[in-house]
Specification:
It is built from seven helices and 27 strands. Helix content is 19%, strand content 41%. Strand 5 and strand 6 form a beta hairpin. It folds into two domains: 280 residues, no CATH class; 92 residues, no CATH class. The chain is of the alpha+beta class and 380 residues long. Helix 2 packs parallel to helix 3 and helix 5 runs parallel beside helix 7. Strands 15, 16, 17, 18, 19, 20, 21 and 22 form an eight-stranded antiparallel β-sheet that branches. Strands 6-5-24-23-27-14 form a six-stranded mixed β-sheet.
């Protein structure tokens, strides 16, 4: 595999010239860009012109990651030309959360082949129920296929997101790349670093990713009581206080994190990026700066390669927008921590998201919020 990364700034243009010589049917071009890029698509047009035969994917962000830097209003790009790996693209439209599982199933069926090794998913971030999307993927794909990815972002605005289709940013799409053959190697890791506080509460009424009641009380009312003055800034301030979710099983230590996407004052409900099942148990979480950075390093360590790479390693870092809002000026510390834990010479691109897709540790894919999730790709 031959690999280069690049970035584009509206004022200074591309950091280095585009390597058009890497264009081929076996080349993957990944571009993460600011939401407003669809209004000023010159950089995307240049990518499409430089790599007409390549597979171009990407999405909007709440911040673009390039190396150890986090930027806004930019484009972060990785160009990977594989030597022994076949790539295939699939997409599905979603006009609402109810179509999420069907979209996952459709994409999985389109990519399914005996030699499928991994799937990278980049999804609309506002109209998709991430839990249902993952359920659809898992229902069709064999357990040995690694599924990772994330939900597109829009800063802390929650107004519009897009994914790339045929070189242009489009809303309401779930996109995916399948990797085929015995030579591709995929690592994954996902960690949080938030602290749990307050009592554990029972979810007494919910529908999919909409939470109505906790311990029999209106969910929004109870949530606001914890936020105090910050409640006026919902849903954005909800990113600072996600929920830890576990199923009501004393033997189940697995915890997922859920982040608010929207609130409904009339219904006193909270809408999350993934399901909050009735009967599950939740607790509030808050930031611990040092543990967030340690969590990022742990995510990178989880991708530890079982065999030493013989060529370039691409790291795709997908971190939650809530982590960025909490870390503030310390945001780049978590990006630096991931690079330090990766193999020497690894190159990294990524974005801040509205949800992360990855196995919890091993096994099937899950939807996560408020985590740093990494996918490493290399070729043996």
């Amino acid at each position: 595999m031959e690999l280069v990364t690049n970035s584009h700034d509206q004022n200074s243009g591309w950091r280095q010239r585009l390597r058009a010589d890497l264009d081929s049917p076996s080349t993957l071009v990944i571009a993460f860009g600011a939401t407003e890029l669809v209004d000023r698509p010159a950089a995307l047009d240049e990518l499409r012109a430089a790599y007409p035969r390549s597979l171009l994917v990407g999405c909007s962000t709440a911040g673009e990651i390039h190396g150890a830097q986090v930027c806004d209003g930019s484009v972060s790009v990785a160009v990977a030309r594989f030597e022994r790996t076949e790539l295939r693209y699939a997409q599905a439209r979603v006009d609402g959360a109810a179509e999420s599982r069907g979209a996952g199933e459709a994409i999985a069926r389109a990519l399914l082949r005996p030699d499928l090794r991994a799937v990278l998913v980049l999804s609309d971030g506002l109209h998709v129920n991430g839990t249902a999307l993952v359920e659809g993927l898992n229902a069709v794909l064999p357990q040995g296929v690694v599924v990772t990815g994330g939900l597109a972002g829009d800063g802390d605005r929650f107004k519009r997101t897009w994914t790339l289709s045929e070189g242009a940013g489009r809303a309401n799409l779930v996109t995916a790349v399948g990797f085929y053959g015995e030579h591709v190697r995929v690592g994954h890791g996902s960690k949080g670093g938030w602290d749990i506080f307050g009592p554990e509460r029972l979810v007494t009424r919910s529908e999919g990713n909409v939470l109505y009641e906790l311990d029999g009380r209106p969910a929004l009312e109870l949530y606001k009581s914890y936020l105090g003055d910050r409640a006026a800034g919902l849903p954005a301030t909800g990113l600072l206080f996600p929920l830890s979710l576990r199923f009501d099983d004393a033997g189940d230590e697995k915890r997922l994190v859920r982040t608010i996407l929207a609130v409904d004052e009339a219904a006193q409900s909270l809408t999350f990026a993934g399901d909050i099942p009735t009967g599950s148990r939740v607790q509030l979480m808050r930031a611990n700066f040092d543990r967030l950075v340690e969590g990022a390093a742990s995510a990178a360590a989880m991708t530890a390669l079982r065999e030493a790479p013989t060529g370039p390693v691409l790291s795709i870092a997908i971190s939650c927008v809530g982590r960025r809002l909490v870390l503030g000026e310390r945001t780049e510390e978590e990006i630096e921590a991931t690079l330090e834990a990766l193999p020497p010479g690894a190159q990294q691109v990524g974005f801040y998201s509205y949800g992360e897709l990855s196995p919890f540790a091993t096994g099937r894919c899950d939807l996560h919020n408020q985590t740093m999730t990494l996918t490493t790709l290399w070729e043996r």
